[in-house]
Amino acid sequence: QVQLVESGGGSVQAGGSLSLSCAASGIIVSQYYMYWFRQAPGKERERVACIWPGTGRPSTYYPSSVKGRFTASRDNGKNTLFLQMDDLNSEDTAMYFCAAGGGGCSTRDADYWGQGTQVTVSS
């Protein structure tokens, strides 16, 4: 059974930071494209990070909305994905989802999804 379980969400003041974790079971994170998505009420789902499979130094991709502020990483030994979010602003308020798949970094979907964790940024 595949499970992706996010943790680390919460409330933070604008300009602050949060770190999200995604504990995976049933899949090996080094063998999949791993993603972070977010979705706010009334807005389209947005992919905010993509990390390539592999056991070496990972390649990561970010949209312009978060580039320079968000950093995705993985710990293959712990089979865990991370998202470090810095300099947060109100536009970052959303439900954040961990996901995995084989469709590359241009996909709008994924094969496996976590349940989501809420991030709220107050201004």
Describe the structure using short key phrases.
123 residues; mainly beta; seven-stranded mixed sheet; four-stranded antiparallel sheet; 11 strands; 49% strand
Give an overview in words.
It contains no helices and eleven strands. The strands form two sheets. Strands 2, 4, 5, 6, 9, 10 and 11 form a seven-stranded mixed β-sheet that branches. It has a four-stranded antiparallel β-sheet with strand order 1-3-8-7, with no helix packed on it. The protein is mainly β. It starts with a strand and ends with a strand.
How far apart are the termini?
A: 40 Å
Question: Which residues form runs of ≥5 with pLDDT under 50?
Answer: none
Enumerate how many helices there are, as a single number: 0
What percent strand?
A: over 45%
Global Rg: 13 Å
Task: Please count the beta strands (DSSP E, at least 2 residues each).
Answer: 11
State the shape: globular
Largest sheet: 7 strands, mixed
Q: Briefly note the structural class of the backbone.
A: mainly beta
Give the helix proportion (percent range).
Answer: under 10%
Pattern of helices and strands = EEEEEEEEEEE
Mean pLDDT: 96
